[in-house]
Inverse folding.
């Protein structure tokens, strides 16, 4: 089923509102992290990078999982909207993984004494980043929409299999990366102020994902309709 | 007496600025692209 231009406009408008609210929420996260949370005794202020790095990493992993699930359904139903949603999610997920990969080394330098280590956890997260890049590069290299949707769905499903492996890599390998302090079998091992701020930051990242993906989805639909209209000699009415 | 935390606030500031630039930069680019796409 092909979405309409009106639905694209509605998605973009809703996305703008949610994105603006989420960016305001991110400002609150900055304030909470800087003013509300205590300074960790051993790591100092650099520990506060945790409130940006961890929620961005969780969101990047969650987005790829979602892309994989949506891609399975796309291969089953062949609904174009699912393919467009996966494409929109990939671009937003790339942004979150870029934040994960930039804030992580900035934290590592004062704590580990080095920007980067080729240890399993870090290398796997770099793979995730390149999976996002590869997924988007693959999409841009295939012109036929159905073929593009099918091929990229397979990549998303295979990439999804990497997600639990990344999360469990700190248990499976000897790694410098800290073990999970929240997503683990036992109760979270964080002071309440830190845990609350982390969960608020994660909620804001999810809201930002939602807003950005609606905007990107709407733009993707509108661009595809315009391209199709252009080829057929007509452009959809923008009114 | 507990040990004094290390002075590494510059790294924190750098990370917060980098993240803000990426969040705001991408949101702005997407807002501009979507405006062009839907024509308003």
């Amino acid at each position: 089923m092909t979405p309409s231009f009106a639905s694209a406009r509605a998605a973009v408008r809703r996305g703008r509102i949610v994105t603006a609210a989420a960016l305001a929420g991110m400002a609150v996260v900055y304030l909470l992290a800087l003013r509300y949370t205590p300074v960790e005794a051993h790591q100092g202020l650099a520990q506060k990078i945790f409130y940006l790095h961890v929620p961005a990493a969780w969101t990047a992993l969650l987005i790829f999982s979602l892309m994989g699930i949506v891609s399975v359904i796309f291969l089953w139903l062949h609904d174009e909207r699912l393919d467009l949603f996966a494409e929109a999610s990939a671009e937003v997920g790339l942004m979150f993984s870029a934040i994960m990969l930039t804030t992580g080394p900035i934290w590592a330098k004062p704590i580990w004494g080095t920007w980067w280590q080729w240890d399993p956890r870090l290398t796997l997260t770099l793979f995730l980043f390149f999976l996002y890049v590869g997924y988007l590069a693959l999409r841009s290299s295939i012109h036929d929409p159905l073929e593009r949707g099918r091929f990229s769905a397979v990549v998303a499903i295979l990439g999804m299999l990497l997600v639990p492996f990344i999360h469990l890599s700190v248990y499976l390998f000897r790694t410098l990366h800290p073990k999970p302090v929240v997503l683990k079998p036992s109760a979270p091992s964080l002071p309440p102020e830190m845990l609350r701020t982390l969960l608020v930051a994660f909620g804001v990242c999810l809201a930002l994902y939602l807003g950005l993906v609606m905007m990107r989805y709407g733009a993707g639909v509108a661009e595809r309709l315009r391209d199709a209209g252009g080829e057929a000699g007509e452009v959809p009415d923008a009114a | 007496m507990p040990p004094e935390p290390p002075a590494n606030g510059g790294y924190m500031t750098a990370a917060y600025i980098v993240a803000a630039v990426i969040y705001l930069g991408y949101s702005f680019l997407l807002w501009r692209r979507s405006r062009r796409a839907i024509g308003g």
Q: What stands out?
A: Chain B has a mean pLDDT of 91. The radius of gyration of chain B is 19 Å. Chain B touches chain A at residues 2-3, 5-9, 11-12, 14-16, 18-20, 22-24, 26-27, 30-31, 33-34, 36-40 (CB under 8 Å).
